[in-house]
Specification:
Number of helices: 9
Order of helices and strands: HHHHHHHHH
Distance between the termini: 80 Å
Oligomer: single chain
Largest sheet: none
């Protein structure tokens, strides 16, 4: 039945999500493609496919996947951000900024991504583990509950996580300042 096919597609898309989270990008790509064979309208599967392709340095394929996700749900900010990341990897700055602007208008959570991109800094680098933080933030903001519905509590979790991250960042900066100060003192005493 149609319901069973959709459920099987959703299970495959969830497997792609899990594989992407474990850095098993080829497996994620295969699971997302399976989800799309079962249900070619599955936006989440296109999103997971695009993520796996971005991490595998396949920006044109990621752009194609993100375009399909946007075509199926043009008001999905997450799909627009994925397309922006593909544009970034392809060196298409104007298109990247346009998608980030549209995403930020749809969802204020992406305003910071837009500000970072406008400043000229990269948003995503598949070789840099810091890019995983971007994925985790997006995943938290777009988490779903067991019924497959958006979990409105995700924003509260995201706010809590941001506070913890800021505290951790402050501790790291303070520790780095102490280390630098000690190096200067030790260096000055050696002269």
């Amino acid at each position: 039945s149609v319901g069973q096919v959709r459920t099987a597609s959703e299970v495959a898309a969830q497997a792609a999500f899990q594989a992407n989270g474990q850095h098993e990008f080829e497996a994620a790509e295969a699971a997302a493609r399976q989800a799309l064979r079962l249900d070619p309208t599955n936006v989440a599967a296109y999103q997971e496919l695009a993520w796996s392709q971005l991490y595998q340095k396949k920006p044109q394929e990621a752009l194609d996947s993100a375009n399909r996700a946007v075509a199926r749900d043009p008001r999905n900010a997450f799909s627009l951000v994925l397309r922006a990341l593909a544009y970034e990897q392809l060196g298409k700055r104007a298109e990247m900024l346009a998608d980030l602007e549209a995403a930020a208008k749809l969802d204020a959570a992406f305003a910071n991504h837009l500000a970072v991109a406008r400043s000229g800094r990269r948003l995503f680098n598949p070789d840099n583990k810091a890019s995983d933080a971007l994925r985790r933030l997006i995943d938290m903001a777009y988490s779903v509950d067991d019924s497959g519905e958006w979990d409105g509590g995700a924003w509260e979790k995201l706010r809590e996580w941001r506070v913890q991250l800021l505290i951790l960042l402050a501790v790291v900066v303070a520790a780095a300042a102490l280390v630098l100060r000690r190096r200067r003192v030790v260096g000055a005493n050696m002269v």
